[in-house]
Amino acid sequence: MSTLFNISKMVQRLGLLVGILLLTAMSAQSIAALSDYQARLDLVTEENGYASQDERLAALMDLVYDYQMTQYPEAATWLGYAGQNDRWTDYSPEAIEQRNRDSRTLLKAVETISVDSLGESAILDFQLFHKDLSANVAAQAFPDELMPINQMGGVQQDLAQMISLMPSRKLTDYRDIIARLESADSLIMQTIVLMKQGLEAGITPPAITLRDVPGQVANQLFDDPMDSPLLGAFVSFPDSISPDQQKQLKARAIAAYQNGIAPAYKKLQRFLETDYLPNAVQAVGLSNLANGQAWYAHRAARSTTTDLTAEQIHALGLREVARIRAAMEQVIIDSGFEGDFDAFTEFLRRDPQFYFTNKEDLMREYRDIAKRADAELPALFGVLPRLPYGVKMIPSYAEKSQTTAYYQSGAQSMGRAGIFFANTYALDTRPKWEMEALTLHEAMPGHHLQISLAKEQTNVHPWRRDLYRITAFVEGWGLYSESLGEEMGFYKDPYSKFGQLTYEMWRAVRLVVDTGMHSLGWSRQRAIDFFIANSAKSEHDITVEIDRYIVWPGQALAYKMGELKIKELRQYASQELGEDFDIRSFHDRVLEAGPIPLDILEQRIKDWVAGQ
Fold first, then answer.
1. Could you tell me the pTM of the whole model?
2. Which of 209, 211, 267, 551 is packed most tightly, with the most Cβ within 10 A?
3. What is the structure's pLDDT at 1?
4. Cα dihedral angle (563, 141, 10, 359), rounded to 10 degrees?
5. Confidence at residue 534, expressed as pLDDT on a 0 to 100 scale
6. Pick from 299, 368, 367, 363: which is nearest to 515 by CA?
7. d(Cα 112, Cα 43) in Å, to the nearest integer?
């Protein structure tokens, strides 16, 4: 999967509910900017000064992009959008409500566009833009903002991650970091306010998933502020900053940590331990909350870009589990292993030959796999990204509750490569046989290739290039990339092949357990048991995964649904084109428009086949 600060996940978590006016306390610069946005909106709505509907649509997308970058400064930092690095998003209840109202205003403005008058490229822009805004407005029926923290992310992790991504090359960069450090306590306190509102409304993550969160907060508390990752930029300075300036900046950073951040984190820790966890919701399914079935249906539809019901997705998952299980049984037979499925998976979980004993060896092997994968790409793709990537360990303060790996996208404008983060916690739960499939998913030809190509497009609007993310496409592509391993020379031994099938099974199981827990009344333990019965993954990994599905309802459905659609379209194109089918051209066509809903992808591939 990709990190919370991968923009796809950032967009999902923040919601990025579009606004036009934010009538809260703001700087004079912000007020002036909002006045400009309103003037621009008025022009578009009144159709003044635009030669075509294409121009009107582009003007609306310009407005939304600029607004989102100024109202969600973390996204601006991530993407290298200048001028926003000194602020955090305002999560006061007033600001959230205002953004919701303004989202509805903007959707109405978009619906004044005459679609019949749009050009071919603009029609796709409109379809994506309107789908996203409509989904944002529909999401307002469900109070996601009342659950701002869980074991997967929140201010206990996100602040350090964001500060670490900020540039630190010149004096103005350091002033931006200082500004964020000095206002971070306000963001932490806003989080506590939202959590209190959630408690009062009976809307919290299930208590069992929060067990490690107080410890995550404690991991951000240090006797020496300079040990904090928040102050990492102040350990050493560029030569362009004078010694006197360095001393002043460091003193301000230490003061911000001691007087603001640390006390706020201590308040959050106490609140979690004394109020939040003891009174958090016990049941794991979203359907147990008010309006929960509709809430989950919305989440599932947005994640999969389909209109399938929870029951239909559950049934599809059971069919996929059965199909993959049969393939796994065949691998066991072919391996010569004497024993049944349970014995084989126990062998894979327990035998020391499948595990490294130090973190450096594990990371070295990941890097070797990545290097070998890179060499096979030209045979499968006509277009490859320019942005490089690296392989790093998941930070120690987050590793215990994080999944096996994730991808963090890079930004050329920020001088930041893409990163495949691998988990080195509990090495006896990180088997060698899963490493090839995992690397292909997170790095090349998976997330790094697809996301980097999308971000390097020059012929699409910045809103589509930078902000629009479809999880079914992004994660579906990642899972599809695992299946390319055989064509790339991987999965040569039965254990790695079983590992690839285990990872495919992992995503099929998600269809079953996610719908089971959130819509069909399954318990957490039933979901864990079903996963264990059909996978060789360790119980620790499985437990972490199940808890992830609990706090991100519906998100895990996207992987398998997207992969199945891409495979279906590949088979269709291959059958229709016969000897004229070119895998490089097919892959380039799938990726060239960036992440798009599955129904639009299907139409684009069918149009491409017809054009051949």
1. 0.87
2. 209
3. 55
4. -70
5. 92
6. 299
7. 12
Q: Which residues neighbour 530 within 8 Å (Cβ) at sequence distance 6 or greater? A: 509, 512, 513, 516
Helix (H) or strand (E) holding 77: helix 73-79
With CA atoms as reference, report the closest residue to 403 among 367, 432, 366, 442. 442
Give me the amino acid identity at 190.
Answer: Q
What pLDDT does 19 receive? Answer: 31
Give the span between the Cα atoms of 322 and 313, in whole angstroms: 14
Q: What is the maximum span of the chain, computed from C-alpha positions, in angstroms?
A: 77
Phi and psi (nearest 5°) for 421? -95, 125
The predicted structure's pLDDT at residue 515: 98
Mapping DSSP to helix (H, G, I), strand (E, B) and coil, where does residue 258 land? helix
Residue 42 is predicted with a pLDDT of 82
Among residues 140, 187, 193, 155, which one has the least CA distance to residue 19?
140
pLDDT at 498: 96
Q: Report CA torsion sign: 205, 548, 230, 163.
A: negative
CB atoms within 10 A of CB 588: 17
Q: What is the pLDDT of residue 5?
A: 32
Element (H, E) at 391: strand 389-393
The pairing of strands 405-408 and 389-393 is: unpaired
Report which residue type is found at 118. Answer: L
Query: pLDDT at position 15, please?
Result: 36
Query: Among 582, 183, 109, which residue's Cα sits nearest to residue 382?
Result: 582
Q: In the 8-state DSSP scheme, what is residue 445?
A: T
The domains of the chain are located at 18-139, 147-285, 297-560
Sequence-ordered list of residues with C-beta below 8 angstroms from that of 233, at least 6 positions apart, any chain: 163, 166, 168, 174, 177
Q: Which residues of the chain have pLDDT under 50?
A: 2-32
| Type of residue numbered 146 | L
- The pLDDT, as a whole number, for residue 465 is 86
The owner of tokens 């079914």 is 472
Annotate 98-113 with b (16+ C-beta within 10 A) or e (fewer). Answer: bbbebbbebbebbeeb
**CA separation (Å) from 279 to 132, 200, 448?**
35, 10, 41
What residue type is 564 in one-letter code? L
Cα–Cα distance measured from residue 94 to residue 72, given in angstroms and rounded to the nearest whole number? 15
10-22 per-position pLDDT tens digit? 443 333 333 322 3
CA angle 85, 90, 91 (to 5 degrees): 135
Q: Give the angle 553-441-431 at the CA atoms, nearest 5°.
A: 90
Q: How many CA atoms lie within 13 A of 328 on its CB side?
A: 26
Beta strand 418-422 pairing with 389-393: parallel
